[in-house]
């Protein structure tokens, strides 16, 4: 598609930008983040030249680039690009638009990662208000907001609220996307993390198992999400003093993260540290 559009439309054309952007999304899905950013940047230069900086298409690319930076652990750049997207969207489509809700949601995710939980819940609340009105309660976007709010409640140690919100998300995902979807897997993994924090290891293993089965079928072995579930399973085994199993699953996670995220990524370093601790404890 790219070669055809370059030959017929040229480099500086909105449809060429769309192709670059779509290629970037595929690279992102595959965990090839540098290639994703390269294609997004090519798309961004074209939309600057063809439709300008204050355009919804520009905001979409900023949003996509922010998501890639987040997966690389570059949170300052993530917030910078989400802020660029939000400013454009508030001007061009308004506050009460699903695209504004998406940006509010994404900013909240970063605040949560940074431990700024009140700000995270504030921005999730903005997103949830918009989505409940614009797309309705029984929609995957609304479910995603519930899921993310559950993460924040869990991080605050409010486990009952976390399970409540995970339950809302899971009900919607199962009804709209089905069992065999990566978003459903994410919610199962989140619920497992709450059960782990409560010391309910049997339930934690059960829900991680549900999540792993889905991500292996939908994303494959060599994907950061798969690594995250392996890492979560290892942590549960470690808390149960089952160090051999813990080391096995941390090693699986480390292999994937070195390949997809690289040595310098915070997630990779966390697993490396966990492996060192386990080897010392054996």
Automatic annotation (TrEMBL):
<feature type="repeat" description="TPR">
    <location>
        <begin position="59"/>
        <end position="92"/>
    </location>
</feature>
<feature type="repeat" description="TPR">
    <location>
        <begin position="101"/>
        <end position="134"/>
    </location>
</feature>
<keyword id="KW-0802">TPR repeat</keyword>
<feature type="repeat" description="TPR">
    <location>
        <begin position="227"/>
        <end position="260"/>
    </location>
</feature>
<dbReference type="InterPro" id="IPR019734">
    <property type="entry name" value="TPR_rpt"/>
</dbReference>
<dbReference type="InterPro" id="IPR011990">
    <property type="entry name" value="TPR-like_helical_dom_sf"/>
</dbReference>
<protein>
    <recommendedName>
        <fullName>Kinesin light chain</fullName>
    </recommendedName>
</protein>
<feature type="repeat" description="TPR">
    <location>
        <begin position="143"/>
        <end position="176"/>
    </location>
</feature>
<keyword id="KW-0677">Repeat</keyword>
<dbReference type="Pfam" id="PF13374">
    <property type="entry name" value="TPR_10"/>
</dbReference>
<feature type="repeat" description="TPR">
    <location>
        <begin position="17"/>
        <end position="50"/>
    </location>
</feature>
<dbReference type="Pfam" id="PF13424">
    <property type="entry name" value="TPR_12"/>
</dbReference>
